[in-house]
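To whoever is on call:

I kicked off a structure prediction for a single chain this morning and the downstream step that reads the tokens threw a length-mismatch warning. I double-checked the sequence; it's 336 residues and nothing unusual in it as far as I can see. Pasting both halves so you can look.
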Amino acid sequence: MVFFLFNVLPGDPSRMMLDQREDSEQLELIRRKYGFNLPVSAQYLHYLNDLSPISWHSERPEDFSHSDRYQSKPHRLFSIGNGFLAWKSPYLRTSFRSQGKEVSQILSETFPNTLVLATAAMSLALILGLSLGLLAALFKGSALDRLISLVGTLGMSLPSFFSAILMAWIFGFLLSEFTGLNMTGSLYEVDLYGEGRYIAWSNLILPALTLGIRPLAVIIQLSRSSILEEMGQDYVRTARAKGLSLPSILRKHTLRNALNPVITAASGWFASMLAGAVFVEYIFGWNGLGKQIVDALNQLDLPVVMGAVLLIAITFVIISIIVDLLYAWIDPRVRN
């Protein structure tokens, strides 16, 4: 869908590569180099061929599927017609705008930044969310419970782009003298003399807080309701009748059984964060996958967008597998 959608969007990637210069000879060379002169269906088949570990390659240099396009040389299996079948590492092609730069290199530079941001935001949301949800459940109906529920409701109602602008303006501009935080900045920064990069952990604080607000609100509500449900079960009453203390019941029984809906919600949010926190990364200038996708869309850089979509899909699959394993480890009833 993404591939074919790009081919109906207005704009010519080959002209964008030339910065809109009218040079018919250069335009023709670029269109032949990147296969823009082929039908859309043929372009898509060539993309699948590049992506597949087992692929067909032409022996003729003038063909778009010629094996010299690949940086890692394909290993020939056997010949077929004017070409041959070979096995190779999946090829995500090169960026249209950053000509000569591999898409895999671009993703390897941006995805780790998004991974750090998403991990920090989800860790914050889980720690605070479970703690506040437990307090709200233990003090059900109290003023503390109502206050925590209000925090959760406000967190869910705040759009990401609005909370990002608000956090950057208040803590990165108005109170910057006290907080020492910047409105924008990525994980790596260059020193004043341009001699090297260093990790600026302070730039992680505001985007992680902003990104963690919405999952925090969800986890508070889910953990509260789940703990209250488990506290009303027969095994809890039995444990109390045997004389077990409330902290012991919570630690050994209730919390583990109440974690399944929390894990489900947290895994979905975490996968979405890894897919690219577009608004948060763009507003805070965080050099992550979300910001890279926005830049690639603005520049009609199809290989980067396709590579990002494939990486996101793989991420969702891996996280889903991990969550299934966590279910079986946390709740023995799942194994049965």
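Update from on-call: the warning came from a stale cache, not from the record. Cleared it. Sanity check on the structure: Residues 103-138 form the longest helix (36 residues).
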